[in-house]
Each structure stands twice: as structure tokens, then as C-alpha cells.
Amino acid sequence: MKKLNLVFSGILLSIFVFINSIAAANIILPEFKSIENLAFKDSACEIIQSCDLEEWNDEFEYESQPLTPDPFEIINRTVFNFNHFLYTRVIIYISDTYKNVLPYPVRDGITNFFENIKYPIRLVNSAIQLKGEKVVLETQKFAINTTFGILGLKNLAQTQWGINPSGEDLGQTLGHYGIGHGFYIVLPLIGPTSMRDLVGRVGDGFLSPLNQLPEQDLRIGSNGLETINDWPPTMDLYFNLTAEAFDSYSSIKDGYAQIRANKVSH
Predict the structure, then answer these.
(1) Which domain holds residue 151?
(2) Model pTM?
């Protein structure tokens, strides 16, 4: 299985580098006055580590950014509409039920635990980008939360010591070294991404401790729990961001590109 994953990753990376070299566009987006009609997520809360619209506005830089090419827009719009159907007809009800069964402190603890356990992803990508300060801060955060925070269930590093570095991932690392988005992709259920960030997701998967668990049932169960636990804030954010948008697809696509560009620049 690991050999197949490596082969798949190599194929994706090769395709990405080739297409990126011929599909790079020099188109500039207009300035946005507010982020309230912008994107859903790469996992939206994960992009800026918050589901608070005010914090989205604080993080957003009102600068023009290169537009991600969208040669498969017809397919992407079809998947987007399929996702919207799932969000509004299925997932929202599962999300609400989950939210009603588990109180917020429990869900917050689960979120903190999964963020803490993905320390290797943030550490390695910070190191590859030669961001020494982030390496130190990430290590401090992990040590504090793993010990005093009861295996990461509490984010004491942030609440008590103010240590909360912005996370790094492989997509940002590739962008840091000048590799562009490639073309835009909408994945079933997951949502917006780009060829660069899709390669990044696969690469980061090899660093995730969740994917190193010995039993397949444990791997599936832990990743499933993380996904379901993310749904309540994600659904709230999704409906807030798309409620007033004239064209939800374009708003999410443009916002995704700008937010990822902003993350790469920090």
C-alpha cells in the first residue's frame, strides 16, 4: 500500500509540474472589500485556524493575487453543486445531531487533540522552509499541550502562553519555493483545492501520525472522527459565506486562491 501511495504521489507531482509549466496564468483578481463572501475551506477553519468571520477579515490582505486557472470549470461546478446538495440535505443534519449530542467543550477538546497530533506536518514544513522561529514555537506548543494540556485536549500553549504559530503544510512549502497553484479542483465532499495543494495533501498524509496507526480500522475511525468533528463549525462557516454570494462557486474559488496565497506569504 505504501509503495502504491508513493507511486501515486510521484505521478501526481509529475503531472502537476508539467501542467503548471504550461497552464500558468498571469491574470489578476480585483480587490475584495470583505471576506464575508469568500471561500469555504481547504478545510476552511484549518486555513486560518479559525471559524470566526471577524478573524477571517483580520487575516485577509486586500491585495490582488494571481487567479488559479480553472480549465475544468464545468466539471468543477457539477461537483460543487453535488457538494452543496450533500451539505444542505445530508451533512447539515448529521452535523447538528453531533453538535447536540456532544457539548462544545468536548468537541473543542477533540479539535485540539487532532491539531496537536499533526505536529510533525507543521514541524517538517516549517523546517523545509527554513522558518526557524516557527520550528521553535511549534515544538514549544506541542510540548506544552501534550504534557500540561493532557495529550493536546487543551490548547494551553495558546490560552495561557500566547503561543499559536500559523500552521505550515506541504502546499504552502511548494508555494514558498515558487510553485504556483496549478489548476483549480473541486473534490467531492472535501471541496476546493488546487493541483499544488492536492499534491501537498498526499505528501502531508505520509507525515500524519493518524495514517501510521497499525490497524486500518483505527486509521479509518480516527480520520472519520476528525472529519465529523469539523463539520459543525465548517457548516456554519459555509452557509455564512455563501448566503449572500451572487455566484457562490466563483466567490469560493477566488477566495480560496487568495487565502492560500496569503498563507504562503507568511
Answers:
(1) 2-264
(2) 0.74
